[in-house]
Amino acid sequence: MIESNKKQIKMASLSENQKTLLLIVVAFIFSFAVRMIWVVQFSDQESFKYNNEFMINTNDGYFWAEGARDILAGSHEPNDLSPVDYAASQLTAFLSQILPISFETLIFYMPAFLGSLIVIPIILIARSFHTLEIGFIASLIGSIAVSYYNRTMVGYYDTDMLTIVFPAFLLWSLIWAVRMKEPKYLLFVGFEIITYRWWYEQSYALDLAFFAVVALYTLYQFVKKEEIRYELKLLATILLAMVYLSMEMRFALVIGIYFVARMELPLKYLYALLGGAFMTFLITGGINPVMALVKGYIFRETTSTIGEGLRLQFFNVAQTVREAGEIPFETFAERISGHIVSFVVAVAGYVWFAWNHRAMWLALPMVGLGFMAYGIPGVIDGGGLRFTVYAVPAMALGLGYVIVEVAKMISDTQLKRQELGFYLIVTLLTALALYPNIVHIQEYKVPTVFDRQEVETLEKFHKIATREDYVVTWWDYGYPIRYYSDVKVLVDGGKHTGDVNFAPSFVLTSPQQTAANMARLEVEYTEKRFKLAESNGSQKMASSNTEQMTLDYGFKDANHFLSSLETPIALPVKTRDIYLYLPYRMMDIFPTVALFSNLDLHTGKEKKNMFFFKGGIYGNNNGVLDLGRGITFDAHTNEISFGQGQTSPIKYFIMTKVENGKTIIAEKQLLNRNATLSLIFMESYGAMLVVNDDMLKSSYIQLFVLESYDPKLYEPVILDSMTKIYKLKI
């Protein structure tokens, strides 16, 4: 009892700064420790490790890793798109030079460490209102909330590891600025906007939203005839920190505003200052970046028209990106607060918090952007999963506010030992709020991008190809291939608009001659485009390579040009080698791959019926095989059934095996010459493929599944069970 009293006295004797620091440290340790669950779960999973180091689990991470690698090496190839000038790569390279850990360890644990920094601004925001206990609870909840955890877990090496930390600090600075009205907070706000943009280019939209909220607050004060001198300076600071000028120039402008803020200038000069800042904002780019983001994520179209010439229509990639797709309300709520009940309480708590502490309304831009994930049903489409994370800090604070206020009410009115009761209730309610998030973390067993065997293949390929060679594959694999094999790719995680995705899709889903012609054309035209851009000459290319090829070969109809590729044609001079990278994992997304080239480029309508289904043998009922998803194969009648009485005969039955690393066709039977569907049993994989004639002829099926290649066009370079790489011979 005496020892307990001593601890309470010691805790009570801590200054507010000491309490704040202690709570930050505890919350940070908690956040980081929870992220180690993944490490414990997969500590014995050797396929997730390369050279005894865990590999990362996000494709985009390899982009930043490539940039850091090239910064450390001191060089990279022209036009390889290495992000050596980007913040994530620069920070990684810097940390790699000063920390005594391997590069792989650094990029694997960086997200967990930097992402856990979110506890600092959350606690500091609550401290602004003298509610440290609310900040501590919110930091525990917010740091491991479903969407925030998913994008800052170990291995999720991406800009997301600081993308919410920066605006949370900005919110904290804005709260202090409008409450204290001191010039130094203008520096804080300006510098945070500048560093946020340095880290994340897309911060522009959120910064503009913060400006709008402060502008509305200033207008409110103006209408009430209150003093607005400081707010005018704050608005000018935000605008000048946002303008599209160099970082050095923006720092200089913000510092200039700081010195202006220390002067007692007439109101008319402050209006002129704000007007000048606004004109500079418009002249340097204004709202153009925001409109581009809104068009891409909110008002999505199935196809997009490229250029003013032939006006070709390509498939819109946003239609296939899961994180940009519409989501159910329950998923939306769970991503933000762990459970739909927690979410409802958090929303109510945020409104309650902001009603009693008006400066919390400044969090509306983050709340609004987070809620745009769901959109406004019937009015605006939801932006998708990627946006939910922005609402996490404010909703966590709202949930923390309710927990503390409810605990106070109960302990003050129902319990005799009020202080002990208060802490017991807070602990219980916080545990209930944390529970669904921790359950999610335990169940969220995300694999690494590639397994060890695939990486070993890429390392082997690195010794074969040169840095100027190109690999044709789907964009999902672009960044890892660039990182491990140090080659160029046509598409990757940042370069996959419909027009650039068209050629790789066309290559993978077309017959071998057609695919080979397009691969050579697309690579050479891509390099030609780079050279013309560097020359700054008067010669320009059409908006897409496909349109330029069509015109160069004397066609006005792109579809007719594509048909001409079915036979050998005069190709551009070969400047480098080209390889086709065909992984087994592509089968899971092959129907999506086909969407990007299976369309009439002038109408945007589907061109062919490309049927591809991958299943297995999930049951055998007297010769009727269950292939999955309600599809069955009757071995007696050689018919595929799709349910509801829909059946189709099989044209070919093909069985393949992998022996000594090579695929052999163990059996091939022509069952019905007039049928259009074929069944391929990949025995070594336990996979059953149902494909129509067009898919059966595709280069991916022929080269990967059957290893049936035209020796005049392709040369096998690496053939293993998970990956096959062919070199183009034309």
Question: How would you sum up this structure, described in words?
Answer:
- This protein is an alpha+beta fold.
- The protein folds into three domains: 14-442, no CATH class; 452-585, 3-Layer(aba) Sandwich (Pyruvate Kinase, Chain: A, domain 1), CATH 3.40.1380; 609-728, no CATH class.
- Helices cover 53% and strands 12% of the residues.
- The protein is built from 30 helices and 18 strands.
- Strands 8, 9, 10, 11, 12, 13, 14, 15 and 16 form a nine-stranded mixed sheet that branches.
- Helix 10 runs antiparallel to helix 11 (183-199).
- It starts with a helix and ends with a strand.
- 45% of the residues are buried.
Shape: globular
**Nearest-integer average pLDDT:** 92
| Radius of gyration, CA atoms, in whole angstroms | 29 Å
Q: Determine the number of helices (DSSP H or I, runs of at least 4 residues).
A: 30
Strand content: 5-15%
What is the fold's blueprint, element by element?
Layout (H helix, E strand, L loop, with lengths): L1 H11 L3 H26 L7 E2 L2 E2 L6 H13 L13 H12 L4 H13 L3 H10 L3 H13 L1 H5 L9 H4 L1 H16 L2 H17 L4 H20 L5 H14 L4 H15 L5 H17 L4 H10 L5 E4 L5 E4 L13 H9 L2 H17 L7 H8 L20 H23 L3 H26 L8 H11 L7 E3 L5 H8 L2 E2 L8 H12 L2 H24 L9 H8 L5 H7 L13 E6 L6 H6 L16 E4 L3 E3 L2 E5 L2 E4 L4 E5 L2 E14 L2 E9 L6 E6 L4 E6 H5 L1 H7 L8 E6 L3 E6 L2
Parallel strand pairs: 5-6, 5-7, 13-15
Antiparallel strand pairs: 1-2, 3-4, 7-18, 8-16, 9-10, 10-11, 11-12, 12-13, 13-14, 15-16, 17-18
Helix pairs in contact: 2-6, 2-7, 3-4, 3-23, 6-7, 6-10, 7-20, 7-21, 10-11, 11-13, 11-14, 12-13, 12-19, 13-14, 13-15, 17-18, 18-20, 19-20, 20-21, 24-25, 25-26
